[in-house]
């Protein structure tokens, strides 16, 4: 089986070398070496026919890579000492996406660990001598969602979380990532993910979010962290997903956004880069690739129309270039070491390129004004079976994930079911 | 007195803190992760020890030189420890430390950890303290650029960017600097240098838009307002097309000029840009071959024809038909990997009713 590929897709530098073109061509050479093993040499004169039947996701290797990390990390990881809630999210989510077992003992360990990272006055930190951080809080909440037990949900004090998020709220609608910390679109995304999952969305919390994100869309079409700053894949997903939670994607110029996102798809490599004229990186398989399903819904494109990019090409990049088949784990690009961050984001990107996830048009909920419609609208997302496209081994298919939250559907549904059965926030705040 | 903790402590690095006189009155607080923790990090003994003392001084909110020195040591090992930066900021303020020396120290750290969020944010705070933006609001840009604080920051960021030309944090910091102190004019010279070094450096192109148009709604220091002056639009078209000539298959100048005009001078797309592009792509032009093979040229034509159709309803059908044809050519010949996008783009081309 062969999908769109050609050596003619390589970068044309017009014989005018600069640092950017030299780096680009060097990466293409490295990737070309991997791809040439899959190309029928007889077809080279026509650009090359790629044999895409042999790609294989090496589950056991990646699972071992993650289980080793769960049991202990070397001192190099001291650099992540202030981001420890991320470690559990990366590990649990990667296991869940691959359909590996998350047994009771691992669940318990995660709950016990995250209990020590919960800040009684709201949010999560790595340890009680740090300030709670909005991005760590996002990761901690997501890890607890993946555990999915009542005990896990009860780790979170949602009233305190709400009060703390409101303390981080800025007059311009954005959020500081911690007290005295920087302000950018990540803060809005993390706050809205947390609030929508924990049933603590209020008009006050969402005030000004859309306007801020709108100001971050640059002339290129993508979204930057802060008004004026260059459009970037990571912030684009954060911004677009936040707008989807708010039901306000029309706030931005979706046509220019589509153009920019499609331009991030690297024709030869098959993966995405994160900014114009930068290099491909496996993590953008999610940050940009994962934004396509949300874009699809925002553009009101029917599930009959495919996403706006070549899904097989992305799967090829993840499977052929991002797997470290020796040590396990997934990576940025060939020549780089695998890590937990890239493992999770490559797997998310792979999942979202295999499954067509969206909302059946006739099911679409029209009330996008009220913040209280959020759980209904978010839980309408699902994988539409007719849209499955898997390249390589049949076993390559991983679990479908929610593009807005970046995690499999079942645990998200459990979480929403639990928190939306609790009394509304105003009531529970009054009781305290 | 020691201003930079690193130098001060370097002689003692091999002596455990518990044996140092400086720390003998402090009982370190160890981290209790429980036995069952997930992803435990095998900290080095040295890190474990310094964090024990850090927790001890932080829990007392101790304001002292030794605490400041300790934060230096922690940051060198783990610059992502945002809480230490917040603590350090407080220490520097309350101890009345020399801010200039503090900036030098941050510069040293930046050389190793230029992808770190905290140090740039911290730097902003230091510079704002050193030079209150309100206090210099009456100064002209000529005066500001020779002010030692601004001059140092411009120099520091340009060297950071010269060694890593697309450093996201450094460019963002530079936007903060330019916006906060209103040093807009000098920035164009720097941008030119960076674009001349690498015409594909998109961060520099983004900065160009920022300097000319602010955050998309005009420079905060000038009158806001969407439409740009015609002469400015014309000179930007000249600039961008000159850069396109160097290497037509370079997304940056295309996105820049089309994005700029779509937002701020749409009619210039077809009155000024289009004839220039056609000339470059015309038979006999030395750029013709490269222009006609790059998808960016064709993509720009789609945007241009679409705008023209919007503005000139009586020619709309014809223009949209041309744009639609170009989309087909892109999908099949010039940009087949993005064929789905070009089909979508074609469907977007509808007459204004």
UniProtKB/TrEMBL annotation, chain A:
Its EC number is 2.5.1.58. Residues 59-405 form the Prenyltransferase alpha-alpha toroid domain. Transmembrane segments: none annotated. GO terms for cellular component: protein farnesyltransferase complex. Gene3D superfamilies: 1.50.10.20. One of its GO terms (molecular function) is zinc ion binding. The keyword Metal-binding applies. Keywords: Metal-binding, Prenyltransferase, Repeat, Transferase, Zinc. It comes from the Eukaryota. GO terms for biological process: prenylation. Binds 1 zinc ion per subunit. Its cofactor is Zn(2+). It catalyses: L-cysteinyl-[protein] + (2E,6E)-farnesyl diphosphate = S-(2E,6E)-farnesyl-L-cysteinyl-[protein] + diphosphate. It is an enzyme of class 2 (transferase). Catalyzes the transfer of a farnesyl moiety from farnesyl diphosphate to a cysteine at the fourth position from the C-terminus of several proteins. The beta subunit is responsible for peptide-binding. Heterodimer of an alpha and a beta subunit. Belongs to the protein prenyltransferase subunit beta family. PANTHER family: GERANYLGERANYL TRANSFERASE TYPE BETA SUBUNIT, PROTEIN FARNESYLTRANSFERASE SUBUNIT BETA. This is Protein farnesyltransferase subunit beta.
Automatic annotation (TrEMBL), chain B:
It is an enzyme of class 2 (transferase). InterPro entries: Prenyl_trans_a. Keywords: Magnesium, Prenyltransferase, Repeat, Transferase. It holds the Pfam family PPTA. One of its GO terms (cellular component) is CAAX-protein geranylgeranyltransferase complex. Residues 1-10 have a biased composition (Basic and acidic residues). Residues 11-20 have a biased composition (Polar residues). Signal peptide: none annotated. PROSITE patterns: PFTA (PS51147). Its EC number is 2.5.1.58, 2.5.1.59. Its cofactor is Mg(2+). Residues 1-20 are annotated as: Disordered. It comes from the Eukaryota. GO terms for molecular function: CAAX-protein geranylgeranyltransferase activity; protein farnesyltransferase activity. SUPFAM superfamilies: Protein prenylyltransferase (SSF48439). Belongs to the protein prenyltransferase subunit alpha family. This is Protein farnesyltransferase/geranylgeranyltransferase type-1 subunit alpha. It comes from Coemansia spiralis. The gene is RAM2.
């Amino acid at each position: 089986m062969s999908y769109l590929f050609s050596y003619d897709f390589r970068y044309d530098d017009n014989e005018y070398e600069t640092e950017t073109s030299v780096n680009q061509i060097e990466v293409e050479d490295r990737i070309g070496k991997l791809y040439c093993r899959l190309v029928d040499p007889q077809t080279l004169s026509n650009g090359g026919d790629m044999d895409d039947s042999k790609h294989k996701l090496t589950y056991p290797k990646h699972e071992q890579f993650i289980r080793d990390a769960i049991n202990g990390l070397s001192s190099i990881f001291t650099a992540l000492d202030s981001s420890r809630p991320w470690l559990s999210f990366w590990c649990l989510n990667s296991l869940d996406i691959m359909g590996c077992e998350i047994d009771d003992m691992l669940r318990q360990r995660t709950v016990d660990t995250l209990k020590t990272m919960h800040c009684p006055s709201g949010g999560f930190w790595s340890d009680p001598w740090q300030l709670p951080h909005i991005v760590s809080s996002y990761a901690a909440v997501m890890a607890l969602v993946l555990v999915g037990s009542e005990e896990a949900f009860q780790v979170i004090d949602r009233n305190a979380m709400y009060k703390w998020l409101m303390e981080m709220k800025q007059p311009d609608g954005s959020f500081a990532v911690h007290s005295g910390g920087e302000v950018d679109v990540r803060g809005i995304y993390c706050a809205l993910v947390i609030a929508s999952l924990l049933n603590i969305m209020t008009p006050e919390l969402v005030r000004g979010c859309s306007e801020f994100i709108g100001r971050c869309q640059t002339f290129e079409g993508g979204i930057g962290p802060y008004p004026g700053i260059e459009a970037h894949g990571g912030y684009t997903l954060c911004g677009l997903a936040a707008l989807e939670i708010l039901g306000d994607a029309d706030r931005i110029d979706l046509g220019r956004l589509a153009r920019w996102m499609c331009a991030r798809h690297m024709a030869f490599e098959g993966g995405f880069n994160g900014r114009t004229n930068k290099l491909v990186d496996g993590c953008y398989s999610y940050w940009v690739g994962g934004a396509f399903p949300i874009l699809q819904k925002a553009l009101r494109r029917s599930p009959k129309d495919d996403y706006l990019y070549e899904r097989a090409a992305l799967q090829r990049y993840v499977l052929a270039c991002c797997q470290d088949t020796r040590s396990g784990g997934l990576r940025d690009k060939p020549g780089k070491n695998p890590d937990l961050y890239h493992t999770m984001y490559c797997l998310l990107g792979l999942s979202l390129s295999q499954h067509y996830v969206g909302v059946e048009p006739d099911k679409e909920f029209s009330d996008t004004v009220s913040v209280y419609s959020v759980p209904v609208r978010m839980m309408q997302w699902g994988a539409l079976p007719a849209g499955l496209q898997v390249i390589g081994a049949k076993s390559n298919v991983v679990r479908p994930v929610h593009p807005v939250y970046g995690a499999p559907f079942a645990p998200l549904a459990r979480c929403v079911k639990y928190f939306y059965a609790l009394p509304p926030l105003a009531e529970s705040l009054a009781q305290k | 007195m020691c201003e930079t903790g690193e130098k001060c402590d370097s002689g003692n690095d091999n002596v455990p803190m518990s044996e140092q006189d400086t720390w003998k009155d402090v009982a370190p607080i160890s981290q209790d992760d429980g036995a069952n923790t997930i992803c435990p990090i095998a900290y080095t003994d040295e890190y474990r020890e310094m964090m024990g003392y850090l927790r001890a001084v932080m829990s007392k909110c101790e304001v002292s030189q030794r605490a400041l020195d300790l934060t230096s040591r922690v940051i060198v090992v783990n610059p992502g420890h945002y809480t230490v930066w917040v603590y350090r900021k407080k220490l520097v303020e309350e101890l009345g430390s020399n801010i200039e020396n503090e900036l030098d120290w941050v510069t040293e750290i930046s050389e190793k950890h230029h992808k770190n969020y905290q140090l740039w944010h911290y730097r902003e705070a230091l510079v704002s303290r050193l030079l209150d933006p309100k206090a210099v609001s009456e100064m002209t840009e000529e005066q500001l650029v020779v002010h030692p604080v601004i001059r140092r920051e411009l120099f520091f960021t340009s060297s950071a960017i010269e060694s890593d030309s697309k450093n996201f944090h450094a460019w963002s910091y530079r936007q903060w600097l330019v916006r906060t102190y209103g040093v807009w004019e000098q920035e164009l010279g720097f941008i030119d240098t960076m674009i001349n070094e690498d015409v594909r450096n998109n961060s520099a192109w983004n900065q160009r838009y920022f300097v000319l148009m602010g955050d998309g709604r005009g420079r905060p220091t000038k009158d806001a307002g969407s439409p740009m002056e015609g002469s400015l639009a014309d000179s930007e078209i000249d600039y961008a097309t000159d850069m396109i000539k160097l290497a037509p298959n370079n997304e940056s100048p295309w996105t820049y000029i089309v994005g700029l005009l779509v937002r701020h001078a749409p009619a210039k797309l077809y009155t000024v840009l289009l004839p220039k592009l056609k000339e470059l792509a015309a038979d006999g032009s030395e750029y013709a071959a490269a222009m006609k093979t790059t998808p960016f040229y064709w993509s720009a034509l789609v945007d241009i024809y679409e705008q023209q159709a919007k503005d000139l309803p009586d020619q709309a059908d014809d223009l949209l038909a041309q744009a639609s044809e170009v989309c087909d050519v892109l999908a099949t010949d010039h940009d087949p990997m993005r064929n789905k996008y070009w089909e979508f783009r074609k469907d977007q081309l509808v007459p204004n009713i």
